[in-house]
Design a protein that fits this description.
heterodimer; A: 183 residues; mainly alpha; 8 helices; B: 271 residues; alpha+beta; Alpha-Beta Plaits; four-stranded mixed β-sheet; three-stranded antiparallel β-sheet; 13 strands; 21% helix; globular
């Protein structure tokens, strides 16, 4: 056999080796799937991996039964559109592993919508806003004066009352002792 | 007719006929609606008028999908566009808008909302635009377009990323080799590397939620209804109705990717 042919055999052996490795290594489930060869070549078992990811945000309806008082209290206010978990955090493992959800009472949370931005092509321009630098004491949390579950400015001004009563109710499910809202 | 003219005209006609009609269609949700196979095609509808830039969607997405919270990566983000009356850019050297007169930013992907009129133009560099100078200003939510012709899937050399039967593009974490072709191939820049799994990562419409009949985390957390998800194959779906009968736009339709995130009140400045 001429030495000229040797590289060809080396190449053929390489190709054969790779094909054998591939046959063992690639799972049998690999296929073209519903989306066709160009876009669907995959291992269909992987779809289950993504379906099995744990759900963290439960939705406001999840809160309804235990916290019915706050759930209904907020319904007739402009803040009714805000899902509970936006401020209270994901309801996963609560109650149960996490007895009390941490409530975000940081000023920055309110400023997400209420820092004034007069943008003409966004509904942001229609939201009542404040200038965070000049509105009251920038070091004081908004919830010191404003009730996040009932942001009724008229009532706030009329009563002049600080530390609104909602704080006594916050956090605890009905029928249980009311705990402090902070931290 | 001369032989030369005959040949010329023949060539013209053949060349013209060779272009499929579909190549000239930039948006055609109807074809997807009528397409065979399956009874689900997930699509998204974002309203740039309703979006106020609160960023609750980005926060919820990061928590729901276990994307490291403080890393500068995110599956979805919110962009702010501010266009001045004089058409001039107040921002110099911003990569995302080289000289089009658009001031745009997305600090931390909008995770903490937009709490100041100052526009971020770099690390700790800001520029402020006066209210009276603004001609147009709005927010645009961005996420994976779950393209019907996903270029990220086409370029994957190992079949680690794929389109499911219901139209969502997923990544097989056990199979991705981290070559980054898909990160480069996506015209919308939605892909990145997950620092924990060390593989390509992307928005998948919260596949674990939509397959259980829930809404995506971003849709659920949006107080304003600026984000909606729907099934394009369901004629009674409110999202389908808007897409079929409303004035919707998509991003970068000229790439032929057939993106399935539809926008209401989309502006030509948005890319």
């Amino acid at each position: 056999m001429s030495h000229v042919w040797r590289p060809l055999f080396v190449a053929l052996a390489l190709v054969a080796g790779i094909l054998i490795f591939r046959a063992f290594y690639v799972p049998k489930e690999f296929g073209i799937g519903e989306a066709g060869y160009m876009y669907g070549w995959h291992n269909p078992n992987n779809e289950q991996y993504w379906k099995d990811i744990k759900v963290k945000f439960q939705g406001s309806a999840y809160c309804k039964d235990c916290h019915s008082k706050n759930f209904t209290y907020i319904r007739n206010t402009p803040h009714a559109i805000i899902p509970c978990e936006d401020c209270h955090g994901p309801g996963m493992d609560h109650p149960g592993k996490i007895a009390k959800l941490p409530i975000d009472i940081n000023r920055l949370l309110c400023l997400r919508c209420h820092a004034i931005l007069k943008y003409p092509n966004s509904d942001r321009g229609k939201i009542r806003g404040i200038n965070p630098a000049t509105h009251q004491d920038p070091n004081v949390e908004c919830v010191t004066c404003h009730d996040p579950h009932n942001p009724n400015l008229g009532a706030l001004k009329k009563s002049g009352q600080r530390f609104p009563t909602y704080k006594l109710e916050a956090g605890a499910p009905e029928g249980k002792s009311a705990g402090g809202a902070k931290k | 007719m001369e032989r030369r003219d005959f040949l010329k005209q023949t060539i013209t006609i053949i060349a013209g006929a060779a272009i499929p009609a579909s190549a000239l269609e930039f948006i055609n949700p109807k074809s997807l609606f009528a397409a065979n196979g399956g009874n689900t095609r997930w699509v998204f509808l974002a309203d740039t008028q309703k979006c106020v830039g609160c960023g609750f969607c980005v926060k919820a997405c990061k928590l729901e999908n276990e994307v490291p919270y403080d890393a500068d990566i995110t599956r979805t983000w919110v962009e702010r566009y501010v266009i001045c009356k004089d058409g001039k850019m107040r921002v110099e050297g911003n990569m995302s808008n080289p000289g089009f007169g658009i001031n745009a930013d997305s600090p931390k992907g909008g995770r903490d909302g937009f709490t100041t009129a100052k526009i971020e133009v770099g690390a700790d560099k800001h520029v402020e635009i006066k209210d009276e100078d603004i001609s147009k200003a709005f927010f645009v939510p961005k996420l994976c377009n779950q393209c019907d012709n996903p270029p990220c899937v086409q370029v994957c050399p190992v079949g680690a990323t794929y389109k499911t039967g219901d139209g969502v593009v997923l990544v097989d974490r056990s199979w991705c080799i981290g070559c980054g072709y898909c990160v480069m191939g996506c015209p919308y820049g939605v892909r990145f590397f997950h620092p924990v799994y060390k593989v390509a990562e992307k928005c998948n419409f919260c596949y674990h939620r939509i397959s259980k009949g829930m809404k995506t985390a971003c849709v659920q957390s949006c107080p304003f209804g600026a984000r909606q998800i729907g099934n394009l194959k369901d004629p009674n779906d409110p999202v389908t109705k808007v897409i079929m009968t409303g004035r919707v736009g998509v991003l970068k339709s000229e790439y032929g990717t057939k993106p399935q995130v539809y926008y209401l009140a989309l502006d030509r400045e948005v890319r």
